[in-house]
Amino acid sequence: MTIQYATGEVVSFDGFLKVYLESTDDEEHAEDSSHILPALKEGDELQRREILATEKYSLAPARYTEASLVKKLEDLGIGRPSTYAPTISTIQQRQYVVKGDKTGEERTFTIDSLKGIKITQKLKKEMAGSEKCECSCHPSTPWKRVNYLPEDRNYDLYKLACKVTARRFFPNFLNLDATFNQNEKWRADDPERYKWEIATMGCRTRVIGNVNDPEREITYGRGNLSFTSINLPRLAIESHGDEKLFYEKLQGMLELVAQQLLDRFEIQASKHVYNYPFLMGQGVWLDSEKLGPDDEVREVLKHGTLSIGFIGLAETLKALTGKHHGESEESWKLGLEIISHMREKMDEKSRETGLNFTLLATPAEGLSGRFVRIDQKKYGKIPGVTDREYYTNSFHVPVYYPISAYEKIRREAPFHALTNAGHISYVELDGDTCKNIDAFESIVRCMKENGIGYRSTTP
């Protein structure tokens, strides 16, 4: 008896597939996606209609395209959407990679067909080895702080990190010495000191404080449960320069978003361990090892964070005062007051609910563009506010504004202490930083000494 196997999928409900089927440029996956099997049950008799045998050749690993390189960076957790384009541009300018087309060679392959008792053979042609606008490179690995004084051990690693970042854009620097990143239980000689070290997820999200269990203000076994971002420029536009009205609108929005996060938490908390077989069933989440499969996860999720983020502080200040915080000291002070107010409300909500409400300097590379497009339709193009394709990221000084790296750092640093759900500041430098490592290092030191918590320096 001969046993034959078929691999594929059975579609139980067509749904949107009735009108849409995703295409692919990958021949191998395109063939796999066509393996739709008929609905069968045990005992059904199969009718042989046709058997095809297609000649195959081994393919060399594909080189990177710009799209596949971005996907690889995302998979490895390297960089963020705002750095992908300059990264790809710079590695081409420095000729680390060569981008171009490759014609390939034509080759012939056969397809044998058995239909009934008749065997036929067809010859077909294909282009092998052709590549369009593809390139090759070696992604780097993110890294965090080591000692950086000449008398410190591992100072050589810090110097090497500066050299690597100047050349490859990474690692970023996570400042464990910032007051808001410190934990009194941390000791350099403790082999388990990682328990008390801050860490970031993705672009900037962080957890550390824990009002639910102050004895375990740790990063591992926890995470951000949800965050929702507020469109600050819209509130400022609707306030028409009236700061009192702006704060009233902001307070109403904070209450609305906080309630939305609580509603979402109720949905998450009502789930059971069996709904999260990895996070809860495998004991990854803090205290989940104490639960049984049918237990509700409410109590252990209280270790997580609920965050409110914000977009476009610069445009908010432009709408309220006519100048953003890079242009005006008075606007900078008002910006600090606004973000301090938001942080105070998060702390109040934490005390009120016993949950970890935190304030996030939202990354929002996509949301900043979406918000401004919506506002342009509603309010038109307001100079300095809605006249660009995006709102400025969180509390950053606008990238188009001419300002020294050191002054940009000074103006953004105080916001790091206020945004306890996550933050980042970055400086873009002209020229080849590999030719002046000392200047590059001075930027890193300036960030550290001004209290920047998480920082990136992009050539």
Please give a structural write-up.
It is a single chain. The chain contains 12 helices and 14 strands. With 459 residues, it is α/β, with parallel strands linked by helices. A hairpin with a 2-residue loop joins strand 4 (105-115) and strand 5 (118-128). The termini are far apart.
Search tags:
14 strands; 12 helices; 3-stranded antiparallel beta sheet; alpha/beta; 459 residues
List strands and helices in order, with pairings:
Blueprint lengths: L26 H7 L17 E4 L9 E2 H11 L4 H13 L6 E3 L2 E11 L2 E11 L2 E5 L19 H14 L4 E2 L25 E2 L3 E2 L17 E8 H8 L3 H27 L28 H4 L3 E7 L1 H9 L7 H25 L2 E6 L5 H13 L25 H14 L6 E4 L8 H13 L4 E5 L1
Parallel strand pairs: 10-11, 11-12, 13-14
Antiparallel strand pairs: 1-4, 2-6, 3-6, 4-5, 7-14, 8-9
Helix pairs in contact: 4-12, 5-6, 5-8, 6-9, 8-9, 9-11
